[in-house]
Amino acid sequence: MEYIILLVTLLAGTANSEICENDTICENGASCIGALRSTIYTCQCTFEWQGINCNEPLIQFNIRSDGFCGYNQYEDQGVIESPNFNNSDTYENNLECYYLVRVHNAQQITFTIESFETEINKDYLEYGQGYSKSSDSYFLEGNISSASTFTINGSYAWFYFFTDFNMQRGGFSITYIADINECGSNPCEAGEICTDGNRTYTCTCPEGTQGPGCTPCTSEGCHNRLRLKCGSDGRTYRNRCYLNHAACLDPTIRVISRGPCTSFGTFEVIGGPRICLGMEDSSSSSESFERTICPPTQAPTTEATTVNDMPSTTAAATAILCQNECPLSFEPLCGGNGVKNTTFPNICVLEAIKCNNDPELTVIHEGECIV
Ligand SMILES: [Ca+2]
Ligand SMILES: [Ca+2]
Asked: Collapsing DSSP states into helix, strand and coil, what is residue 265?
C-alpha cells in the first residue's frame, strides 16, 4: 500500500509557473524557474549579479578588477572549487571569488568538503544562507579535513573566496547535494497522499483505500475456507484475505500467528458467513474446533460439528465472554428471558450469554427445551 520512488531527475524539466511568465521578475538576463500553480520561483542570475531577483551587482563589494572569479550553480548537485584546483595548481593572490548556489525548491543543501587548504588568517572562504552576501556568515580557512559537512537551510547559499597578496595554497573543492520538496511536482497518482523525504517521496493511499488507484478496501473475492489467522487486534480471522481487508481499514493490524488467537474457549471468526468456534485447551494438542455459539448476539445453538483446521497456537487467550472460557461439554439446559426459551449446551455458556447480552436470562429447567 506504500511505495517509494527514488528520484532520478529533479526539476530540470519543470514547466515554468505563471509567475515566471512575468518576464520582468528576474533581472539582468537571469532565467526564471518555477512550477505550475506555484508562487515559488528561482532566478538564475547571470554572473556578477545576486539578490533574489538578480538585481544587486556584485561590484558593490569593490571587487578587484584583477581577481574577479567564481561562478553560479543551479543544479541539484554539483561542486564549487577555487581557481586552479582542477589542475592541481595553487590559487592566485588578490582574488575575490563569488559563488551562488541556488537549487529551485530546495529545503536544504548539504555541502561536503572534499579538500580544503588556504593560508591561515589570511586567505578564507566565507559563506552564508540567502540571496546575497551578508555579514551573517561563516568562515573556513587553513587546513580542514575532508568529508566535513555543513548544511544550509533553504535553497540559496552564497560563497566568497578572498586571498591576500602572497602565499598561495591548494584551495578547495566542496561538493553539494540538495534536498527539495519532492512532492512539489505532484508526483503521486490521483487520490494518493505524497510525503516528502530526503531526496525521495512516498505515495500512500488514504485510510480505507488500497492499491495503485487507492480503491476502497474490500473483502470481495475472499474465499471462505477456514485458514485461521490471529490478528494483532486480538481477533481471529477466517483467513489471510480477511485479515488483509481488516489491515486495509486499519494499517496497525497485522498477522500475529497462524490459528486462532485464543487457545481455549469460544471465539468468533471474523470474515465470511458468521461462525463461532469452540476450542479445547491447546495443551491437549487438539487440532480440531467445534462449531459453537457466537457469544454476543447470535441465538444459541446446540449444533456441534467438528471442523478440522490449522493447528492451535500458543497465543494468549482473548476475553470474548464475561466468563471467557467454557467447556465444550453438552449438558443441555433450557434458559429463557421471558420472551423466548432457548437450549444451551451447558450452564457456563448460559451464564456467559447472560453476562454479555441478556441479563434477563434464567434457567428454566435442565435438559433441552420442550418445543
Ligand atoms: Ca595568501
Ligand atoms: Ca525532500
From this structure: strand
Determine the Cα–Cα distance for residues 86 and 102; give it in Å rounded to an integer. 22
CA of 118 to the centre of ligand 1 (A): 7
16 pLDDT above the threshold of 70: no
pLDDT at 217: 93
Q: What is the CA(142)–ligand 1 centre distance, in A?
A: 11
Dihedral sign of CA atoms 18, 23, 26, 32 in order: positive
Ligand at minimal distance from the CA of 10 is: 2
**What predicted TM-score, i.e. pTM, was given to this entire model?**
0.58
The owner of cell 533581472 is 27
Please report where in the chains the cell 487486534 appears, as a residue: 233
CA distance 131 to 5: 31
Contacts 24+ apart (CB under 8 A), 340-343: 341/369, 342/299, 342/300, 342/369, 343/300, 343/302, 343/368, 343/369
Q: 167 CA distance to ligand 1 centroid (A)? A: 4
Q: 67 C-alpha to center of ligand 1: Å?
A: 13
State in Å: Cα 162 to ligand 1 middle: 9
Distance 174 CA to ligand 1 centre (A): 19
Whole-number Å distance, alpha carbon 164 to ligand 1 midpoint, is: 5
Quick one: pLDDT at residue 126? 97
Supply the pLDDT for residue 298.
38
Q: What local confidence, expressed as pLDDT, does residue 14 receive?
A: 46
Ligand nearest to the CA of 187: 2
Q: In what order do the strands lie in the sheet with 341-344?
A: 341-344, 333-336, 362-366
Closest ligand, as measured to the CA of 168: 1
The Å distance, Cα 193 to ligand 2 centre, comes to: 15
User: Rounded CA gap, 230 and 250, in Å?
Assistant: 15
Of 149, 128, 148, 147, give the one whose Cα is nearest residue 139: 128
Measured CA to CA, the distance from residue 171 to residue 86 in angstroms comes to 10
